[in-house]
Structure formats: C-alpha cells, structure tokens
Amino acid sequence: MTTQQFPVNFLWGGATAANQLEGAYQTDGKGLSLPDVLPAGKQRMQIVNQPDFDFSIDEQKYFYPNHLGIDHYHHFKEDIALFAEMGFKCYRFSIAWSRIFPNGDDAQPNEAGLKFYDALIAECLKYQIEPVITISHYEMPLHLVKQYGGWKNKKLIDFYEKFARTVLTRYYKQVKYWMTFNEINSAAHFPIMSQGLAAANGANDKKNIFQAWHNQFVASAKAVKIGHELDANLQIGCMILYATTYSYDANPVNQVATMKANQENNFFCADVQVRGHYPAYTQSLLAKYNLQFTDLDYTTEELELLAHYPVDYIGFSYYMSSVEEVTQKDHESVNGNLMGGVRNPFLKTSDWGWQIDPDGLRIALNQLYDRYQKPLFIVENGLGAHDKLDANNYVVDDYRIDYLRQHIQAIGQALADGVDVMGYTPWGCIDLVSASTGEMSKRYGFIYVDVDDQGQGTFKRYKKKSFNWYQQVIASNGANLD
C-alpha cells in the first residue's frame, strides 16, 4: 500500500480536556462544572442516569476524580515542557467554562481564570507549540444544568456566545485553531457529557436531544461569526465522534441499517455545521422518534445563521469501528466508547473492549473528505490500557506504540488517497481521568502520572517508552515509525 509523505506543516501533537486533567476544581474562583459531580468508577454513567440523580456531590458515598485530575493547574509548565521535548507542533486543550464564568450566567468573567489560560497559552507559544482550543469539552457550569436544564434551554445559546466572545477576543491573536464543541454528536448515546442531559432532566425524551443539538448548532455558528469578525484567518472547526460503521454481512437489511446508523451517528451534526443546513434525511431521522422538525423551537434567523457561518474544518475522534446487524441473529457483543454493538470477528479489542481498527481510520478519512471537501484534523485517537511502572519508574508500552504506528500508517495511506489531513493529536498525551468511567487506571499517555483511581499518589510525571518513540515520529515528520 502506498503511503504519502506527511505535509511539511502537519500538526503533530497531543490532546487533553480541562475537566479531566486540571484539577483545582474550586481554585481561583472556579465554579462547579458538570464533571465535578460525576462519581468515579465503571458505573459512572449508570449512576448518573438514575431518575433520582440530583447533580449533587456526596463525598461519603463516592470519590470524584475530576476534583484532582492530575493537578495540571499547578504542573502545567512542567507538562508543556515535556510536550515540547517530544517535539509537539500543537497542543489541543480546552478552556473550562466554569473557570471563566463560574455559574455560566455571570455578568462578568472571572479574571483569575482568564489569567491561568493567559499563562498556559504563553507557555505553549514559548516552545512554538500552536494552541488548538476546544471552547466546550464535555463540561459546562453546573448551574446551567441545575437552573436551566442544560442545552435543551435556548438561553444557553446566549451564555455560550458570551463565553465564546470572551475567550476568542482575549486569545485570537495568539490562537489560530479553535473547535466549538467536543464530540457534539455523542449525545446520540450519552447526552449527559455534551448537553447536560440525564434521565432526571429530560435525556429520555429525544425531542430534548434534538432541541439541544439545534441550540448548540446556533451557538457554534455564533462562535464562527465572532471569530471570523475578529480575524478572517482564524480556523474554527466542529468536532465529532466518528466510528466507521460496517454492515455485518451483505444482507440488504443490514446495509440499510448501516446507512441509517451513519446518518444518525456519524453525519447528522457535521452535515449541519459543515454544510450550513439540515440534511435531507432530517425528517426521516426525526420520524424514527415520532418527531417532526416543526416540533423543535427554531427561527428563520437561526437557520440563516447556520447557513452563513459553517465551520472551517472538521475535527474528529477515532478510536474504533462498529458493526450493524439488525436481523436478530445471536452474535457476541462488544463494548466501547460507551457504545455497544456486535463484535467484529476480524478485529482485536483493547483492555476496555474497544475494537482496534486502523484501516477504519483510513476509511473514515476518505468518507469524511469525500462528503465535505474540508480539511480534516484527527484530534483524538489512542489506546486506553493498564500501564504499570516498573522498578525504574518506566512503562514499556509497546502495545500503545503498535496501536499508534498502525493508525499513523493509515493516515499516510489516506494522504495518498488524496485526503486533506491537517494534523494528529493522540488523546490523553499525558495520563488523565477517563471521561466515561472516571478511572486513572485507563491510561492513554506518553507520560505516566503517579496517581491512582482513588486520587492517591505522588503526582510525579514519568516518560513511557512511547514518549521517545513519538518524539522520533514527530522529528521525522512521520517517516520513522520503527
């Protein structure tokens, strides 16, 4: 197979999220955010989706790992220096909304929160690392969930617009690359993270999910408008979760199911944000849930805003592929990324049951580029695994190197296919708290952080074997993957 040389300006780096690594959850005026009330453990999502979940903190009953993260808030200079040592060209991170507007509806931003990001961005630029900022990454001020009911409430459009205007205005001269919402389409499976919706406040009513999406689409378009008015050259993208989806067999029934699954799970949110209008299959999709488009609260002005301010590029996460099989045959199932499904007999799985499919990344890149003809940015990809420090405080993570090598090779093949790929930022470039399970033991990083699932440890940072491997990948611009 032909592998194209990576472009000279290819953005190699890594990715994190504020709520999963910063810690300092009530420091310097920060308000509570949604992840601050999510308990640790594999039952995290089941607990949150109980009808009586009240978004409160019960430290007698649960541990809350996002309160500590990896204490990046106090270690960011050390962490950025390690990223620079690896040779990062960019670093994708997010701004914690509740650091800037502690309640979300505050009249004025919290200057102490802004000063933290002043310092973080300055530290990146000191090493010629391009910041890539996600404006909202799986968090929102808890007050917006409890008082307003999350993104199903149209008032959040104005609160987000104010937040986006604040950070874009403050940082547009230093930061060229932005994304409006992390994995916006993930609400099809777990709306708590991106929309602030659980069973207790309306997640089981699909009308709320689609209304929340519409409100987020409008908010995203407003952010694009603000950014482009500040500087027409700013690159403001959407960000979606993408799982390449196969039919289990050639049965046309499964082929149709795969088409429908792709529309709902992979394309719907991007279709609106990239093309600027709702796709032709929208009514068919809504009808699946006994809804019509007219059931949603929208205005002509909002639809015009979507049309005038589409995103500049598509950021996406890719961890695994999935299989559609609807003929009710008895198949072995598999879990992954909070989405279950039929096991693909041709693929191996990670420690957490995620199906490892580098060829699926090449397919994803081709599918997305064929559909949208906009630059693509792989802003999450990686292997969560049980890493163990040896006696020398070293992790021999050959399994991670193998995973990343195969996926980088797939990117090279997609480049040879003619796909425009901007960059690659593996997820959790430094170990952090898992979003789905609240575990530290599910580690992705090139850098090991000595803290366990109960928040115990020295918080010291140690380079894994993959650290030096990725360093040579970047130094060779993807040519040396050995």
UniProtKB/TrEMBL annotation:
InterPro entries: GH (IPR017853), GH_1_N_CS (IPR033132), Glyco_hydro_1 (IPR001360), Glyco_hydro_1_AS (IPR018120)
Gene3D superfamilies, sorted: Glycosidases
Keywords, ordered alphabetically: Glycosidase, Hydrolase
Hydrolase keyword on record: yes
GO biological process: carbohydrate catabolic process
Domain of life of the source: Bacteria
Family of the protein in this entry: Belongs to the glycosyl hydrolase 1 family.
GO CC annotation: cytosol
Name of this protein: 6-phospho-beta-glucosidase
NCBIfam families listed in its UniProt record: PRK09593.1
Keyword Hydrolase: yes
Extent of the signal sequence: none
GO MF entry, a single one: beta-glucosidase activity
Catalytic site positions: 380
